[in-house]
Each structure stands twice: as structure tokens, then as C-alpha cells.
Amino acid sequence: MLQQAHALHQALQAKPAGERTAADYQRILKLLPPLWRDPHAAPADDARFAYASLYVAMARDLNEEKAYAQAADALRELLRVSPYSAYRRNAEFALSQIEIFHLHQADMARSNLEGFVRNYPADPRVGVARLEIRGQKVAEPAYLLGPEPAATV
Fold it and tell me: What is the pLDDT of residues 6-15, one digit of tens each?
């Protein structure tokens, strides 16, 4: 099911952005929730991260701001249910960017960013995170741009 969702997402990305529809995204999104019914099942984290990524892609392609809130909810749930996920680093960073640029919740983002800097000091995004912690305006960095391969631990 996860491979099917990834294949559909890649096929959708091959279409011009103007031809993508909410129905296209919804068709893919509905494949993922069954994969995380058991939060300890192997594909659960992959499915939750892909779910958030799809909502970000949907928000960008269709200018649908509500989809950013849905992506943020999916990332928070991933971090809550699976705090040691291989996706944790990317989920924390992506969540903070969504909170800053789309949900206008800089105070919430600051907490995530401080943890990100503390836990992943060698990550190349730490410089951006430090600027954002200080409240400096930066251009929205890249995050969740496409389906990622399954996490490997």
C-alpha cells in the first residue's frame, strides 16, 4: 500500500502543477491511514511522514492553506506516537517551518527549533533554525518537497 501511494505521488508530480487536483491528492491520502493503525508496525512512520508530505505538496500546488494545518497535525502525531522515529529530525524541522510560515505560530516553532538545534547540531539546517529562533526573517526553506524513501534505522 505504501509503495502504491509513493508511485501515485510520483506520477502526480510528473503532471504539470496546474493539472493536479484535490481529488488526485485525496486518492493517495486515503491509502495511508490503514498503515498506521498499529503504531508499532514497520510502515507506520513511513505512512505518517508521507501523509504530511502529501498535505504540504497539496497546499503548495493548490494554494490550499488548510492543508498546511493538516500536515502539521500529521507531523505532531508522528512525533507523539513515535518519538524515536527515523523521521524525527525532518518532522521537527518541517513542523517548525509550517508553524512559522503558514500557521503564524512562531512561539510554538521556537520550541521545536531549540530542540532541533540541541539534538542535531551538525544538520545543515541548524543555521536557518538559529536565525528563526532569534526571530530573524528568512526565506522559507525547502522541506517535504517529495516522497522520501522508507526510513532506515
Answer: 899 999 999 9
Name the strand (E) or helix (H) holding 52. helix 44-62
Longest C-alpha distance within the chain, in Å? 42
- The answer to whether 75 touches 98, Cβ cutoff 8 Å, is yes
- The per-residue pLDDT for range 53-63, each reduced to its tens digit, is 999 999 999 99
Whose grid coordinates read 524515536? 84
| DSSP state, residue 19 | G
In one-letter notation, the amino acid at residue 90 is N
Determine the Cα–Cα distance for residues 11 and 85; give it in Å rounded to an integer. Answer: 27
The tens digit of pLDDT for each residue in 108-117 reads: 999 999 999 9
Q: Are 97 and 84 in contact (CB under 8 A)?
A: no
